[in-house]
Amino acid sequence: MIRIGIIGVEGRMGLNILQLVTAAEDLTLGAAITHHGSPNIGQDAGSLLHSEPLNVRITDDVASTTKDVDVYIDFTLPEATMINIQPIANAHIPVVIGTTGLSTEDLAQLAIYAKETAILQAPNMSLGVNLVYALLEQAAKVLGKQADIEVLEMHHRFKKDAPSGTALQMGKVVAHAMNEDFDKIAVYDRHDMNRERGAGEIGFATLRGGSVVGDHTVIFATLKEQIEITHKAKDRSLFADGAVYAARWLHQKPHGLYSMQDTLAL
């Protein structure tokens, strides 16, 4: 049995993961971690699912749970993730990180912590999205230098970071395939630019509204044709499915920084 520690257990993703872990024959709940000040601290984690007791108390202290966990799954906020990783890395326990909105500095710090433990970090745990990354790489190698590239994404009205981590990763995949520096060619706002589209740019457009789980489209547009590669998430539980899949894969892996594409051998 693999003991899973869920960080952010009261969030939408955390609850989905909790359901999957408790239903799986090869997994068991090792820790249920929530934010400071939660009224549920000290309660049995089963209360979150209105189910029978799971014999795991909800806590806000990651460090106190390391002896009970084989793999952590973290879906929180960037500042929380960067605090949580410290005791996890010190205890050399693998962790799957699905938190979005991590800064360049955060990612660089995770790479350092990956020298101590196995870290799988991905802004999107969907297996389909990670297949799309592979398709984008091929498209960019063939069309990238001759096409205008735009990334369009839409999410529910409650999402805080923009563009989404998935949209940014799509842009980075394309830029890397073209041997370009992503930070130099990404354009997030054309307001008041008053000029034609620059050659080689990767433009981003962000939409927010309603209950959209997550739609992403990358457009390769030339003067004679247009290719669009699209992924539409229909159910948030698919991200939980991917996170649990990743946790199984990461268990007992050596220290290092991994991605979902590693789990698919892409």
Automatic annotation (TrEMBL):
Top-level lineage group: Bacteria
Keyword Amino-acid biosynthesis attached: yes
Ranges of residues in domain Dihydrodipicolinate reductase C-terminal: 128-264
Complexes and interactors: Homotetramer.
InterPro entries listed in its UniProt record: DapB_C, DapB_N, DapB_N_CS, DHDPR_bac, NAD(P)-bd_dom_sf
Enzyme class, first EC level, given as a word: oxidoreductase
Main location: cytoplasm
Gene: dapB
HAMAP family, A to Z: DapB
Catalytic site: H155, K159
Name of this chain's protein: 4-hydroxy-tetrahydrodipicolinate reductase
CDD domains per the UniProt record, alphabetical: DHDPR_N (cd02274)
PANTHER family xrefs: 4-HYDROXY-TETRAHYDRODIPICOLINATE REDUCTASE 1, CHLOROPLASTIC-RELATED, DIHYDRODIPICOLINATE REDUCTASE
Residues at which (S)-2,3,4,5-tetrahydrodipicolinate binds: H156, G165, T166
Binding site for NAD(+): G8, V9, E10, G11, R12, M13, G98, T99, T100, A122, P123, N124, M125
